[in-house]
What we know:
The chain is of the alpha/beta class. It has helices at about 5-10, 25-35, 45-55, 105-115, 140-155, 165-170, 190-200, 210-225, 240-255, 275-285, 300-310, 345-355, 375-380, 385-395, 395-400, 415-420, 435-445; strands spanning about 65, 70-75, 95-100, 120, 125, 130-135, 160, 180-185, 205-210, 230-235, 265, 290-295, 325-330, 335-340, 360-365, 405, 425-430. It has three domains: about 5-55, Electron transport complex subunit B, putative Fe-S cluster (3-methyladenine DNA Glycosylase II, Chain A, domain 3); about 65-310, Dihydropteroate synthase-like (TIM Barrel); about 325-445, Rossmann fold. The strands form four sheets. Strands 10-9-8-7-6-3-12-11 form an eight-stranded parallel sheet. A five-stranded mixed sheet has the order 13-15-14-16-17, sandwiched between helices. Strands 1-2 form a two-stranded antiparallel ribbon. It is globular.
Amino acid sequence: MALTGIQIYKLLPQTNCKECGFPTCLAFAMKLGAKQVELSDCPYVTEEATAQLAESAAPPIRLIELVGEGHQIRVGNETVLFRHEKTFYNRPGLLISIQDTLDETAIEQLAKTVDAYGVDYVGVDLRIDGLAIEATSGDAARFAEAVRAVRRVSDLPLVLVGEDPAVLGAGVELLEGEKPLLIGANARNWDSMAELALQNGAALGATAASLEELAELTEQLRSKGVEDIVLHPGAARMGPTLAMQTQIRRLALKNFRPLGYPTIEFVGGSDDGRQQAVLATQAISKYAGLVVLDAFSPELLYPLLVLRENIYTDPQKPIQVQPALYEINNPTPQDPVLVTTNFSITYFSVANEVEGSGIPAWLLVTDAEGMSVLTAWAAGKFDAESIAKAVKQFDVAARVERHDIVLPGHVAVLSGELEEELPDWNVLVGPREAVDLPAFMKTVLSEGSTVH
């Protein structure tokens, strides 16, 4: 069982050196007991104490890494039930299922399509994380051919699904140097599946119909030396699946070690994909570490990837782009300079409107710590001084001959101050909304107006 804060404190050096960032060792011990700091933050903890504190220092949900030839998936390591309590750390891996009963050409084509799929979402590259090859045929040779076909065209991490160790063994032995996940250990085959996972350095998925059976199975696997385990709850319907996923997370966070592992869900559905969309949405939202879809469907994947990105973005860190001077529609030195902040949604709103208009312009993005224009202005992060600093930092004057700089309409109040900071520039006030930029640029800027 995990130790309490007082028990942890008794094992610490009790020097109150403050090098861990806390005023006392007791304060650090309380944070360690709450899983809010790492034991390594204490520079003077002894090896003996480290060994005793290993369980308390470990995250309640084990971190599992699946490694392909060129990519990896990290799941687990979560410490809270709800994101607003702290944050979620590792996004659920989204994978596409491939049946080994397909012919090699179809397998290659599907794997190649999945590998190439990607979406740019406010500067974030959204992609599918891996492939799950299912041993539907029950034939070891055919399963091995399916694995070879996938590896000819894709280097994504793999999940190998089946209950026959001999069949899975034919596939996993082809993945030397990788770390796949084997799914299919149950009450009947756990011993041989554990040996297969240990021999090949693979993580192992445990399947059971109830939490009691799942906990017993993980204890058996651990007794064989298997540490990297993924839980596969065996509930068949949506309601029971939600209940099991929530109970697993709650128990894990209470340091019930037999269920302290990430989970995997296989979601299928009707031909139109609506049922699969609902099931996948629930799995991403309520607490699956890996989500396997039974078909590749771009119209389904895009909203799921966006949903996952929104849920697993740290709420304390706004999505932001790199401050810089960006070129839109191949501007010349005679084109104007627009100014905005580095909040991603603000940047892309402005950039997309200008790009869509076909009018060339320079876009100066200032460092406002990821805040929108009004928020940054109210917080003192977007003012005349910071804009002038960005103009000098990115050497804007040397790149343009037309010294027209356009402020967002919401911060028109900054125009006078910016004129003082940049006396060689003509400060203009643009529209309040990005959607009005094309009309503004066609009427005001195209005439070279000096209207303030």
